[in-house]
Amino acid sequence: MSTDSILLKVEDLESGYGQSQVLYGMRLQIDAGQCVTLLGRNGMGKTTTIKSIMGMHLAWKGQVQFNGANIRNLPSHRVAQRGVGLVPEGRQIFPNLSVEENLIATAADRRKKSNPWTLSRVYQLFPRLQERAGNFGNQLSGGEQQMLAISRALMTNPELLILDEATEGLSPLVRQEIWTALALLRHEGMAILVIDKNLAPLLRLADRHFIVEKGQIVWEGDSDALSADPDARQKYLGA
Ligand SMILES: Nc1ncnc2c1ncn2[C@@H]1O[C@H](COP(=O)(O)OP(=O)(O)OP(=O)(O)O)[C@@H](O)[C@H]1O
């Protein structure tokens, strides 16, 4: 694989909270256009990894490279400017802004893409948001909030979309809508890093999986390999 196609590369990452170390040499690689998952039981360090990539949490040691440039411990807005869009755990949409205002608030097209994300494009992806365009963030259902959080990240025209707990707390029907939208984005060439507890849709969606246990990668492979490894699924995911 040529290094030109490497979008995100995380190596030897160490981090934690106060005296308590959480990441012990985390690593991760996402190539352009690839969909990658970060899997593992609760408390293993997935969110800490994402926050360290995004500059929302201090990385103590190691490398975080995006498009060949060092982004370790850059402020979050600078990481976003480089082309990383985050859909955070808990969604964190603005409750007192309308759907449309939420979408416009952080929109940007810094890389002058040929087909940038616009209001009409995100409304095409999630027609429900158009119906709710004038509603405030706090008037939306959980599913609508997640659609809004994804759309808001898309409006920054990212090269890499990161979703922490993509479908947590959503009904099966809404979950399916989210998976369908992510499959469409992947088909269009968007690189995606996704954390979620539902393995079956991730096996269909993703090119590669990284399993984290106690702050380090203990298994890596494609969907066929993970499907064919019930021991790893049981041991690391309880699935
Ligand atoms: N703000 C914090 N202060 C102290 N410890 C924290 C903080 N956030 C997370 N931790 C601890 O760091 C460890 C890793 O947490 P992290 O949220 O990264 O795990 P995770 O794999 O994302 O799990 P989950 O699925 O539960 O979100 C856990 O032991 C957690 O208790």
How far apart, in Å, are the first and last alpha carbons?
31 Å
User: Approximately what portion of the residues adopt beta-strand conformation?
Assistant: 25-35%
User: What strand order characterises the main sheet?
Assistant: 6-7-8-3-9-10
Radius of gyration: 17 Å
From the spread of the alpha carbons, the general shape counts as globular
Largest sheet: 6 strands, mixed
Tally of alpha and pi helices: 10
Identify every distinct bound molecule in the structure, by name, code or SMILES.
adenosine-5'-triphosphate
Structural class: alpha/beta
How do the helices and strands follow one another from N- to C-terminus? EEEHEEHEHHHHEHEHEEHH
The helical percent reads: 25-40%
Counting DSSP E segments of at least 2 residues, the number of strands comes to 10
Q: What's the overall average pLDDT, rounded? A: 95
Low-confidence stretches: none
Pfam families: ABC_tran
GO molecular function, one term: ATP binding
Protein name: ABC transporter ATP-binding protein
Domain ABC transporter: 8-239
Write the layout of secondary structure elements.
Layout: E1 6-17, E2 20-31, E3 35-39, H1 46-53, E4 61-66, E5 69-70, H2 76-82, E6 84-87, H3 99-105, H4 119-125, H5 127-131, H6 142-154, E7 160-164, H7 172-187, E8 191-195, H8 199-205, E9 208-213, E10 216-221, H9 223-227, H10 230-237
Parallel strand pairs: 3-8, 3-9, 6-7, 7-8
Antiparallel strand pairs: 1-2, 1-4, 4-5, 9-10
The structure holds adenosine-5'-triphosphate.
Can you put this structure into words, describing what you see?
The protein has 239 residues and is α/β, with parallel strands linked by helices. The protein has helices at 46-53, 76-82, 99-105, 119-125, 127-131, 142-154, 172-187, 199-205, 223-227, 230-237, and strands spanning 6-17, 20-31, 35-39, 61-66, 69-70, 84-87, 160-164, 191-195, 208-213, 216-221. Strands 6-7-8-3-9-10 form a 6-stranded mixed sheet, with helices on both faces. The two termini are 31 Å apart. The radius of gyration is 17 Å and the shape is globular. It contains 10 helices and 10 strands. The mean pLDDT is 95. Adenosine-5'-triphosphate is lined by residues 17, 22, 40, 42-48. It holds the Pfam family ABC_tran. InterPro entries: AAA+_ATPase (IPR003593), ABC_transporter-like_ATP-bd (IPR003439), ABC_transporter-like_CS (IPR017871), BCAA_Transport_ATP-bd_LivF (IPR052156), P-loop_NTPase (IPR027417).
